[in-house]
Structures are given as C-alpha cells and as structure tokens.
Amino acid sequence: MARFTARPMTPDGRVHGTFAHHPLPRRAADRLHMANQPVPQAFGVAHDAAQLATREAGR
After folding, report:
1. Is the dihedral of CA 31, 37, 41, 47 positive or negative?
2. Where are the alpha helices (DSSP H) in 1-59?
3. Structure confidence at residue 12 (pLDDT)
4. Are 39 and 29 in contact (CB under 8 A)?
5. Do the Cβ atoms of 22 and 44 come closer than 8 Å?
6. What mean pLDDT do residues 21-35 have?
C-alpha cells in the first residue's frame, strides 16, 4: 500500500527518504468500513483495476 524510498544512510546512522502511498483496493477499503474505520486520506480508494495495475507495475 506504500513504498519507502530510502536515501543512503547518514554518518550518524539515520535513514531519510520518502513515502509513496498507493490507492487501496476496493476490498480492503470495504473491510475498513465494515470495521467502522476510515480510509486514511493518504491512500484513497482505487476507482478501477487500471489504477491498481499502475501501482503493481510501479514496484
């Protein structure tokens, strides 16, 4: 659902980088709704299979 792209470790041992959030599959979003939990805004819900295929190809 998310990917962390790390930059090289700094001399003091810290790791910095960026997160890329991808849309949730409809089934995962439905399960969150059934558990009375909101879908985090950073993710959103995929509107169609093409949007999920983009996420899969981006690995």
Report:
1. positive
2. 26-34, 49-57
3. 92
4. yes
5. no
6. 85
Answer whether 26's CB lies under 8 Å from 58's CB. no
Rounded to an integer, what distance in angstroms lies between the CA atom of residue 6 and that of residue 53? Answer: 24
Q: What is the pTM of this model?
A: 0.49
Q: How far is the C-alpha of 23 from the C-alpha of 30, rounded, in Å? A: 13
Tokens 């509107």 appear where?
Answer: 47
- The C-alpha atoms of residue 29 and residue 46 are separated, in whole angstroms, by 9
Contacts by 43-50 with C-beta closer than 8 Å and gap 24+? 43/1, 43/2, 47/23
